[in-house]
Every structure is written in C-alpha cells, then in structure tokens.
Design goal:
mainly alpha; 16 helices; 58% helix; single chain
C-alpha cells in the first residue's frame, strides 16, 4: 500500500491508506498546479502547531524514554492536546466534522511525518471520531491496522487499540479481531487482546478469555503484558470470572496472572 505524501514534503508517498494508487502522476505539471487537499492543509497546520511548542531538552528525554526509536519535538501530552484544541474540541473540530474517509487521509499524512508527536496527534483525532455505521467502522479498522504495523511501538499501538475499541459499538466488528488475534504481527495480536479494556460490562468476556488462553504460553513480552493488562481491566467489572479463568488456565505466566 502507498501512504499520502508527508505534510509539507515533496517526496513520493510510501503507501496510501485507502489502498488505491494515485490516478495522477504526483510529479506532473498538472498535479503541481492543483491545490492541496483540505486534509493535507490541516496536517501541515497540525505539524506547524506542534513545532511551535518544541522543547529540545524534553525532546532528548522523550527520545531516550522510547529507546531512541523516534525523534521528538519535545511536546508533552498536555501541551500537545492544548495546542491541538481547535482540531479536537468544538462543533467545527476536524475530529467531529470530517468523514471517516477524510480522517483516513489525514492520518496518512501525519503518520509519514518524522516527529513522533505527529503520530500521537493522529491518534488524538482518531479516538474522538465516531463511525456512523459498520461499513465506515470496517474501513477505519482496515486503515488503523496499517498504522499498527507501521512505526510500531507500544505507545501508538496502545492508543490505536482505543480507536479500535470505539468501533466495537457496531455489531459484528469483534469478528474482525478473531482474525487479528492470529496475525503474524505481535502488535496486531496485542491490539486484539487489549481493545476491550474500556468496555466494562459490554466486554465480550468469552472472546477475551479465549484470546488470552490461546496465548497463555506466549513468551513474547508485549503479548504477555497485554494479557495481564486485559485481565486486570476486566477484573474491575467481574473479578470472580477473571479469578476462575486464571485458576483454570494452565500456562499463564506470573506477569499475566497479576493480582485479580
């Protein structure tokens, strides 16, 4: 897949989240004369807003915390959300007014940016978006999966799991997770396990326990931690059910069992 061009850059896109090849040669004169799409303009504005708050000393610490995997502007989460308020809050905010297709385009631009806060900004917008129907939820879920396996680390993966959790209001969307839990990517499997963490009484406990049981003996750190986290989260809703599952399931590691 190819993603839209990074906001403010002239290089060719790496992949497109809508899965379609561009109908225009991006280097053609005709393309150069075209006005940028509204989503590309918004992406550029978001990047500029984040850059205006950059803090070099914080950037060094944030990069170190993320094991040198990503570069940062050095914008803390509270400051980031404060500067992004025009895009997140209010009736005219892009998080509320843009269509699912437009947000898929926007996240592509932001995901191609080098600074990690741009990916966080994409998640900030996405987690507030309400899909109108199952078709829109399926489109968003497919696009989010591309992000899960791109520039992957726990910070964005766990945030994207919340985005997936929001789509589960539509009947049948949990069936998609039945495929994700068997995916080759540990990050996709992690999302399948933790995407119900905030659903409380709406949690599909049978499915949650099945996912945890399938990977009970998994030694992969991020999968073991996901199992422990998901069980602890559901334990607030039904501690007895979690306790029974833990006692009946062989192979659960100490980090997965936790204290329920």
């Amino acid at each position: 897949m190819r993603v839209p061009l990074s906001a403010g850059k002239r290089s060719k896109p790496q992949f497109r989240l809508d899965g379609n090849r561009s109908r225009l040669d991006l280097e053609s004169p005709r393309r150069k004369k075209m006005k940028p799409s509204p989503m590309k303009t918004i992406a550029s504005d978001i990047v500029a807003a984040l850059q205006s708050c950059k803090d070099s000393s914080k950037a060094v610490m944030m990069k170190k915390y993320m094991r040198e995997k990503f570069d940062f502007f050095g914008v803390s989460a509270p400051d980031r959300r404060d500067v992004l308020k025009p895009y997140l809050k209010g009736k005219k905010a892009v998080a509320r007014t843009a269509t699912t297709e437009e947000l898929i385009e926007l996240m592509g631009y932001l995901w191609n940016e080098d600074m990690r806060e741009c990916q966080y900004a994409a998640c900030d917008v996405l987690v507030l978006h309400e899909t109108l129907n199952k078709d829109k939820a399926e489109s968003l879920t497919s696009a989010v999966k591309e992000l899960v396996v791109s520039k992957s680390w726990w910070d964005t993966v766990d945030y994207l799991a919340s985005v997936i959790g929001n789509t589960l209001i539509h009947e049948g969307m949990l069936n998609v997770m039945d495929g994700w839990i068997k995916d080759d990517s540990i990050w996709v499997r992690r999302v399948a396990i933790i995407c119900q963490n905030k659903r409380k009484t709406k949690t599909d406990a049978k499915r949650l326990f099945q996912y945890c049981k399938e990977h009970a003996s998994d030694t992969e750190f991020f999968i073991a931690k996901a199992i422990g986290w998901s069980l602890r989260s559901y334990a607030y809703t039904d501690p007895d059910a979690v306790q029974r599952f833990v006692e009946e399931t062989n192979g659960l590691q100490n980090s997965q069992r936790g204290k329920h």
